[in-house]
Design brief:
Elements lengths: L4 H42 L1 H15 L11 H22 L5 H30 L6 H14 L1
Helix pairs in contact: 1-2, 2-3, 2-4, 3-4, 3-5, 4-5
Length: 151
């Protein structure tokens, strides 16, 4: 059996198709991550209960206030739980590399760090009451990553 010019061209064509597919696949995967990230972040301003929770937490951050371990107002507690659940979900996607990590760090990183700071007493007390040491653990882990990248 002899290796001919036709065989070489066929092999080169297969290689070219494989490389093109790989590049296209990587780009579409990145584009999907970016799209998912933008959608998740934009939900904060579009979905009413997320928007309200985000505004409440931002007010606390702006006023240099922290959430107490026991929140007497059920509406305020509900808002805090909403935003913490949102950040926990976002953090789990972040850790699985399902969303654009750089975009999260740049667009929400500071707010995530500040939210953890103003709600840490509440998180600690809630974890103790519910006997769930892992309560908001992904959120805490991502905040540690973000803080490490900022140093």
């Amino acid at each position: 059996m002899e290796f001919t010019l036709v065989d070489a061209l066929t092999l080169l064509s297969i290689l070219l198709v494989s490389v093109t597919w790989y590049i296209t696949h990587r780009k579409s995967k990145h584009d999907l991550k970016t799209h998912n990230t933008v959608t998740l972040i934009s939900n904060l301003s579009v979905v009413e209960h997320l928007r309200d929770a985000d505004i409440l937490v931002r007010e606390k951050i702006t006023n240099n206030e922290v959430f107490p371990a026991l929140i007497p107002n059920p509406g305020v507690e509900k808002c805090l739980i909403t935003i913490l659940d949102y950040y926990e979900f976002l953090s789990r996607l972040f850790l699985k590399d399902s969303i654009d990590r750089r975009a999260i760090v740049e667009l929400r990183g500071t707010l995530m760090l500040e939210t953890l700071k103003v709600s840490s007493d509440y998180i600690t007390e809630s974890a103790r009451k519910t006997k769930r040491e892992d309560l908001y653990s992904a959120f805490s882990e991502v905040c540690a990553i973000i803080a490490g990248e900022r140093q």
